[in-house]
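Hi R.,

Here's the input for the magnesium ion complex you asked about:
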Amino acid sequence: MALFVHKYGGTSMGSTERIRNVAKRVAKWARAGHQVVVVPSAMSGETNRLLALAKDLAPARASAAFHREQDMLAATGEQASSALLAIALQAEGMEAVSYAGWQVPIRTDSSYTKARIESIDDKRVRADLDAGRVVIITGFQGIDDEGNITTLGRGGSDTSAVAVAAAMKADECLIYTDVDGVYTTDPRVVPQARRLKSVSFEEMLEMASLGSKVLQIRSVEFAGKYKVPMRVLSSFTPWDIDINEEAKSGTLITFEEDEQMEQAVVSGIAFNRDETKISVLGVPDKPGIAYQILGPVADANIEVDVIIQNISKDGRTDFSFTVNHNDHARTLELLREKVVPALGAQEVVGDTAICKVSIVGIGMRSHVGVAAKMFRVLSEEGINIQMISTSEIKTSVVIEDKYLELAVRALHKAFDLDQPAAA
Ligand code: ASP
Ligand code: MG
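And here is the predicted structure with magnesium ion in place:
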């Protein structure tokens, strides 16, 4: 007997028919003698629908009080899908019980709309499992110290699932989704993209943070911190496929690098269309400017990604960085109101027509010239690089967004990631 956490995404939970299928699949695992905890997302489209209603009624400048209500509202999506899944399991003849985050409880901090899980009490869940029940826990949500409902950020059910798996020391956390694993890049952009049988945790972490939408990044961080074995697999295979076959399908996130020895230098190409560029122009070049610009941005809880500072001319320099699309207007406003006057900079300009493309691979540690090859490929396509950022296992470039597809396809090919053509 093993303990598995199954997570089902919104598409997999998208209709009562699909929920029935999930129930049949879960029942198969439970009947094979395993303990199963299921963490579902809201039915597809539901979170968007709820958030749109809130936005419709909200004042232009959203307050913390608004964010509290937003979480209160958005959390209902998962409560509904969890109860529906429990009902479907009961209809399959299984004993099943669902819990909202606060009933477990899953404790988080109080940062509404992007709360972090602090602890999970597994007593109640453990007792149900020992009594032979399937337990369903709402994804995406928790409760803070004051008893307010919080949510973990879009896509947060992945993180709920891995956190539950970590807390319960599950044997594996299976992330069922509408794709059959992690690909070398998004197959919608590159049809020749290949599924990876396994990917190292570090690569997955980079890919998630660089814009691969398969997993929420916090879920990968959690998996790394608590060494939770995690697998991404399809929920669209027939529910009654052989359980042993299913258990080996998809993409396994591994912690052992030796398994990767044979792998290509670059394992994947990630991209992010959600980034935007902010440039502070004509900043007096003196110690402390990065702090004076980015300090207030950090204080406003805005995440900054790629940063560059140009060489100075006549004692002044330009300072650019990228932020998420959602934070673009707020960042511009903040800098114009507070930072520019205080610093004596000339102006702040924003550019939303950019994107970030990255190559990722632990093989980059032991091979030189990988970044140079990336730059060569892009230059051969006539693509101008605006910003560069590197780490041990990735190189990212910021380019004009109209070149995204071209760049990703060219890099995918140049780094030998295209699927072998059918004979
Ligand atoms: N329902 C939430 C969302 O749409 C959480 C999730 O699906 O993971 O973002
Ligand atoms: Mg998701």
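One thing worth noting: The chain has two domains: 3-256, 259-423.

Cheers,
M.
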